[in-house]
Amino acid sequence: MKSSIIIFLKDWKSELRTRYSVNSLAMFILVAISVILFSVKDEPLSPYLTAGLLWTVVFFSAMSGLSRTFVSEEERGTFLILQIIAKPLNVFSGKLLFNTLLVFLMNFVITLLFSLLFSAFIIKNIYLFTAVFLLGNFGIAISSTIIAAIISKAGAKGTLYPVLSFPVLLPLILILSELTNFSIDGKTFEESFAEILIIICYDVIMLTASVMLFDFIWKD
Amino acid sequence: MIDITISAENLSKIFGRRLVFRNLNFTFDKPGIYGIAGRNGSGKTTLAKIIAGVLSPSQGKIHYTSNSLRIKPEQIQKYIGFAAPYVIFYDEFTAYENLKMLTDIQGIDFESSRCDNLLGEFGLYERKNEHLSNFSSGMKQRIKIVFAMMNNLPLIIFDEPVTNLDSAGKEIFYRLLKQQGLKSLIIIASNEETDLSFCDGIIVIEDFGK
Predict the structure, then answer these.
(1) What is the largest CA-CA distance in chain B?
(2) Minimal-distance CA residue of chain A relative to B55
(3) Which residues in chain A have their CB less than 8 angstroms from residue B187's CB?
């Protein structure tokens, strides 16, 4: 566990010094929200549409920055030293922690900007939205981490990441969008139970599959 | 002190359709210096990576034993020091940060006095707080050698260790190598005659029936 935390701290310090992911994430969020604002102008948006737009921006922002955690190790050639000295599970846990932090920061900023800039984006059940936000972000972090590990050794990383992420993240994004609509409508936890259960199952399945798969991705 | 024994049993490696080597059998036993030699492309680096647990052999097995107890391949990373020109450290961290951080990731205790001592031997003590991006390739190679040696690990693998080193650097390395060879099992993959002259035994990959 200690090794995982050291790898997480290494990535975080490295990110603060190099700004590999943060800059591309920040630029994408800025550009995407600006384009939406300029396109919409004074047109009234429905609350459901803002929920869909929120998760669309989240999905494409994740595509633009979350692969860096493994890709930068491969591109800089530092992959090998980690392979020699660290256990695969520690590397995966460390990278997952880092991506989780990045996803939470990214989605917090996106949600905050949506709340400030889109008057139709009003959440009536904030507790439901918070639960969806936490579970959804963790799901996005797990999926994007394992896909980043898979594509890091491929040739066309930039193309492969969204191609592989689309089928893996789509079910999650659809459910998250639906649950955001529920929280906009003010539905209770009981009414949203089935959808929440799907996200929990998604997170558990993705985490288990990733831990089992990572050994094979990491070696050779 | 932990002694380690490495024995390879019918080790073969194939990349795609290309056979790198076939049916290697050898044992490296207890502290000492052993060499892996062979022409360019014969698979010295591949063999070094297989011993380090980074690559899997296509056929055969490699066994690690420490004080008569079998070490599982997935636990071997705690016992290994590794230095090679193709191993890259983090440019955005200082030399000292790299050495401390990588030791912590490896899950072993960081001996700062031993680290400072080796940095001093290689003439890098004064520059230990500089970012690695300011270092020349020769200085980076010295840092990698310090990392491999500083924790007195039972198994140390050097692949082309004197690449990028100047003559003074080579002298320091050879002096430290002789001292370390009394405590650790050292494997050197190289074609340099001077590197191999320190070895107690050498395996030449071509000899293994290609």
Answers:
(1) 50
(2) A220
(3) none
Higher pLDDT, B206 or B140: B140
Q: Which residues of A touch B80 (CB under 8 A)?
A: 84-85
Task: Give residue A219's identity as a one-letter amino acid code.
Answer: K
Substitution target from A84, A215, A217 for chain B, most B beta carbons within 10 A:
A84
Q: What is the CATH number of the domain that holds B159?
A: 3.40.50.300
The domain containing residue B161 runs over which residues? 4-207
Determine how many CB atoms are found less than 10 A away from the CB of residue B128.
Answer: 18
Give how many domains chain B has, as a whole number. Answer: 1
R_g of chain B, CA atoms, integer Å: 17
- The predicted-structure confidence for B46-91, as pLDDT tens digits, reads as follows 999 999 988 888 999 998 988 778 888 778 888 899 999 999 999 9
Cβ–Cβ contact B15 with A under 8 A: no
**Contact (CB<8Å) B105/A6:** yes
Whether B109 and chain A come into contact, CB under 8 Å, resolves to: no
pLDDT digits (tens, 9 = 90+) for A49-65: 998 999 999 988 888 87
User: Left, alpha or beta for B55 (phi > 0: left; psi -120 to 50: alpha)?
Assistant: beta
Alpha-carbon distance A10 to nearest alpha carbon in chain B (angstroms)? 8
ipTM of the complex: 0.89
Q: Could you give the CA distance from residue B120 to residue B131 in angstroms, rounded to a whole number?
A: 17
Q: How far is CA A104 from CA A4, A51, A56, A133, in A?
A: 19, 17, 16, 9
Question: Residue B209 — very low, low, confident or very high, per pLDDT cuts 50/70/90?
Answer: very low
DSSP letter (8 states) at residue A124: S
**Shortest CA distance from A7: residue in chain B:** B105
**Between residues 51 and 110 of chain A, which touch chain B (CB distance below 8 Å)?**
76-78, 80-88, 90
Q: Is the pTM of this model over 0.80?
A: yes
A82–B105 CB contact, under 8 Å: yes
Query: pLDDT tens, A100-129?
Result: 999 999 999 999 999 998 888 888 899 999
